[in-house]
Amino acid sequence: MAILVTGVAGFIGFHVAARLLARGEAVIGIDNLNDYYAVDLKRDRIATLQRDHGAAFRFAQCDFADDEALRREVAADTLGSIIHLGAQAGVRYSIENPAAYIRANIVGHANMLELARHGGVRHLVYASSSSVYGGNRKLPFSVDDRVDHPLSLYAATKKSDELMSETYAHLFRLPQTGLRFFTVYGPWGRPDMAMWIFTKAVLEGRPIRLFNNGQMRRDFTYIDDIVAGIIASHDNPPPDDDAVKAGGSVAPHRIYNIGNNRSEELGRVVHLIEEACGKPALKELAPMQPGDVPETFADISAIQTDLGYAPTTPIDQGVPAFVRWYRDYHGV
Asked: What is the pLDDT of residue 215?
């Protein structure tokens, strides 16, 4: 039986597929290769998987928000499990193009639930987001906190996904795990994220914009630690035992934070990028952006207790690793 990975041409999906393939799994990867950011980067990720893993990896260009196309490309009865990482990402873009988020993140998630339900898969793992914590002021963010006040449509769609999953876990006893990721970075990252934007600007001698006048903190989490949490979650489906799970469900549905369990000052990250690039950053202070929050900080005690998850990569190691990859990939 194969493992289906959605969003396989994306940053996290690519790394998860590579880890699964490296341990001998058969992986079917789907992605619609949309142009939210450079399609060439997405194609390079797919080409890397195909080169390194051959016939164990099958890629299909498919929009999972299109139910008919999904069913044509993926036979549900061939799947052992699903890792659903595909989504329309980005907090700020959701203000400009809300329809893309409704289609990909809500309609698409419903389609994946139906595929999992009718295929009888052993486990559906899906990507939520730390953005669901919205206006919460209590830190660190815990999966036991209420998340009723999203500050962006992106966050609202991810909370909607969690609610739909809870319903399917309750009605159809479909084992599921939802993962709230915290500021993921690392090699093969996304061009719309701060690590990439800052590194590119520093190397090109252009200014970087620091929102909230630079008074920002994030729980920066290296990609290898994110993947470790995803794989551990995938390998341990929640039991259908009526016991209360992480996140509060008594159905076979868990919610976990996956973060580094440290809230880092943005200025510290910029300094590490400067050191790795060997050049100082030109800085412009700017006000807070709509839909953004000043600080994120993950309480990872639930996934630590249940699965033994423990992040191992501090930003002092992770930031230089990203910059080295960026310079190698771009030849700069």
From this structure: 80
CATH number at 2-186+221-261+296-312: 3.40.50.720
Among 314, 332, 321, 185, residue whose Cα is nearest residue 260: 314
pLDDT in tens, 227-257: 999 999 999 999 999 999 999 999 999 999 9
Phi, psi for 290 (deg, rounded to 5): -55, 135
Q: Is 168 a catalytic residue?
A: no
Domain spans of the chain, in order of start? 2-186+221-261+296-312
Are 57 and 27 within 8 A, CB to CB? yes
Asked whether the beta carbons of 270 and 198 are under 8 A apart, the reply is yes
Which residue type does 221 have? T
State both tokens at 45: 């990720």
Alpha carbon distance 325, 280 (integer Å):
19
| Catalytic one of 93, 101, 126, 154 | 154
